[in-house]
DNA sequence: TAGGTGACCCGCG
DNA sequence: GCGCGGGCCACCT
């Protein structure tokens, strides 16, 4: 059955699920919020496994520069861009427009 | 068993 | 001010 190794994966998934529509966050922010000192890379790996679990809005998670680095991992390279645009986020050249304003901080919003 | 990779981030030149 | 390389840990072959 389920291995407990998914524990830290689940932490990432739950935080990503808490991201409101029209907002985006970065891997490092989630890593820092969860205390994953290991680095933001582990968060990216969790996203890679997000395909194996239920609805995880990985398209709302982008890198520190607001670039859709993981778009290539979606069903289609344009899927992430279309999804973000569908939420009201403008994306140009694989880059989120007004990323800093759309940035959603888990430590500020999710944290009490 | 061991090695290499990776949806990244930070620091230094 | 900007660009490039190294480093970090976990998963895969």
Structure description:
The protein is mostly helical and 112 residues long. The protein has one domain: Winged helix-like DNA-binding domain superfamily/Winged helix DNA-binding domain (Arc Repressor Mutant, subunit A, Orthogonal Bundle). 41% of the residues lie in helices and 7% in strands. It contains six helices and four strands. It has helices at residues 6-17, 27-34, 40-49, 79-86, 99-102, 106-109; strands spanning 25-26, 61-62, 91-92, 95-96. The strands form two sheets. Strands 1-2 form a two-stranded parallel sheet. A hairpin with a 2-residue loop joins strand 3 (91-92) and strand 4. Helix 1 packs across helix 3. It binds a DNA duplex (13 and 13 nucleotides) through residues 5, 8, 26-28, 31, 36-50, 58, 61-64, 68-74, 80.
Quick summary of this structure?
By secondary structure, this protein is mostly helical. It is built from six helices and four strands. The radius of gyration is 13 Å and the shape is globular.
């Amino acid at each position: 059955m389920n291995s407990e190794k998914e524990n830290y994966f689940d932490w990432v998934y739950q935080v990503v699920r808490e991201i409101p529509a029209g907002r985006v966050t970065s891997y490092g922010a989630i890593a820092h919020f969860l205390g994953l000192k290991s680095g933001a890379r582990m968060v990216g790996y969790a996203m890679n496994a997000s395909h194996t679990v239920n609805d995880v809005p990985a398209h709302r998670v982008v890198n520190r520069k607001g670039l859709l680095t993981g778009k290539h991992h979606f069903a289609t390279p344009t899927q992430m861009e279309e999804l973000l645009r569908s939420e009201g986020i403008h994306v140009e050249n694989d880059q989120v427009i007004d990323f800093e304003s759309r940035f959603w901080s888990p430590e500020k919003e999710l944290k009490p």
